[in-house]
Amino acid sequence: MLEVVVAGGMIFCAVLAIRSSYLLQSAIWLAGSSALTAILLYLMGAPQIAVIELSVGAGLVTVLFVFAINITGEDASTVLPSIPRPAAWAAVILVVAAFAWMVLPGQQPAQVEAGLAGFSTVLWQDRAVDMALQVVLIFAGVLGILTLLGKPAAAGEPEGGDSDD
Amino acid sequence: MTIEPRLVITMAVICLVGIGIYGLLVTRNLIKVIVALQILVKGAILALVLAAKYQGQIQLGQSMALTLIVADTIVAVVGLALGLQVRRRIGSLDLRDLTKLKG
Fold this sequence. Notes:
heterodimer; A: mainly alpha; B: mainly alpha; elongated
């Protein structure tokens, strides 16, 4: 029953994050959706990833969104959609139906007993390549943040020293 | 009548994927596109952990979900930085205005 309430709240927050006209409200609803996702992950028996989702998804990403929105300003999304809404709905129904067909099996398999290896063993030994990839990704993220915080170039000033002289 | 948690979470995953794809299709604001992408990835994280749980490899699912969260966060950071620079240069976050960029 608790899963139903949490999942319902998560979907509600996600819908409002998409439908909200204001970017700041959208970011706040997204944070709510992330927090409820973390609760759902905890209920599924994945506490480590629930903590990470809560701190990164609901914390760090929300701070970044609020920061970026404060810099760019509230650009209320009142513009027309990219594609006509009926076409978007048709595409969504098609994708969701295909996805549901894949993930909703006719027979529910019995739950298998959990493996013996701990999270740290799997993470640092079995998934060592993933960890190396994450280090590279984090460096890319640091570069992204530096760009986010970087001062804008003055008007007419050539950037990166690539002036043709 | 009790609803099986697995079915509830599967339906939630399907809804999140649908909402995310709808947002990606109809939104022209760059920041809203990143929000839609975040929602889509949340569905993927839940699906990954759910599948791992019912295969008895929850730790493997958690480690893969961790990679997904890191990658998703980096995508958000780089996307927001890109949006900020686009806003500074062309004064808009509308994706259609990006066609005015010159290389």
